[in-house]
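Dear support,

I submitted the protein below through the web form. The confirmation email said the job was done, but the results page showed an empty box. After a refresh the structure appeared. I'm attaching both so you can tell me whether what I see now is the final result or a partial one.
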Amino acid sequence: MLTLIFCIHHPPSTTLIPSAVEEGTVDVMSPNKKPRSTSSGTTEPDLCYRVRTITGFVNFKSSQSRDDRANVLSKAILLLRQLETLFTENGFVVQTIRIATNPFGEWMPVHDSKQTLATLVDLDEQLTHHKIEFCSLGSATKPQDAQELCPMIIETSKIFSCSADIGAHDIAMAEACAHCVKTVSQTTAPSFMKDGLGNFRFAVAACCVPNIPFFPVAKANQGGDEDLAFAIGLENGSLAQRLLSDCGSIANIPTGFRDGMQKALSPLQDLCESFEQRVNSNQNEQLVKFLGIDTSLNPSLDENGSVAHALEILEEVQTFGGPGSLAAASAITTTLQSLPGIKRVGYCGLMLPLCEDSRLAELSGEGLGITNLLSISSVCGVGIDTVPIPGDCTVQELKALFLDVSALAHRWNKSLSCRVFPLVSKKAGDSTTFDFPHMINAKVLPLGNSRI
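What the results page shows now:
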């Protein structure tokens, strides 16, 4: 099976889709940008969201030869490039295109470490040839694979990401994931593994279904059919700030925020459905299916890109993490999961990655802790994400954290993930010193009984 998921910034083109800003009370035009010309020569407003990724989901089989996998990959990437061109020509900014596979245990020779490494090296060469910089190899489903193969995957290439599926009260998998995270954190070669950054490409996944557009939990359906499917995810912190500023109060989220999101996303959906229809009318072998939009609020590193600050705009939330935060997060998530006329896929929640949200990074030095983030995840998702923790954390402490995340996810049947960075030589309260374009620096948060 081949599945595509992409995340988008766009001023829409009137040749394909209507304007996202219509008559009404909600203005979703960026306050810092002027209208720009589209490929049709008309002028449309810049909306406050971007393409985070176009992700192609492919299904590999253990019976496939190297050439068979290469052929599947080439077809997927060809379509990805066509989508990238389509969006670019219509005023979209596409940040990345990515590949994700079905769980690696289904197709890699996992019982032979030499053959596994050879398969990884070959896949890395193919992806590099096609200029693909991000590839998720799906999830580990066995503790042994999580503990032994996930570190190998992460260490082999900076292109690769993966995750591990954890069930409710799954002690063995939680412990295996803890060993994996510790191993990766202590690996310093090749250079892309330094400073604990290898764990940027690994997450513990609880109730994470296929077709989530965001890494590292992205994975294709197991044993999927021959249809080509695609969906959308966003980078939209600026849009969140604009809409919640217009709302002013939690009371207006079910109406004002809902209407603003629906107006912003409808033209995106129209374009996808138009693409689906056009491709299906011309293809003989594979049919394209539009899966929907991951409506999650996802921050950017822009000045006005913080999702945490967006909540603080509401009159009921003085400081994110304090009183009113749960109520606001719950109201927003309920709305994101019920936008009228919008086909949804993925998390559809509130994304709070500590080292990817400037306000969260600031609050990490003011008492915000992992418990606060996990508490808010109980009503909105998406889990514990990009959180730096002390390098001397124990396997037992990590195992306990992963079990907490899993318990919450399985109790409420919601997709949650946990991505933490144990930093060697760092203790709770220290500042990180990342030199990494996808993250900002924050305070190291404590685990266990340690205190800042």
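Response: this is the final, complete result; the empty box was a page-load delay. Residues 5-45 have pLDDT under 50 and may be disordered.
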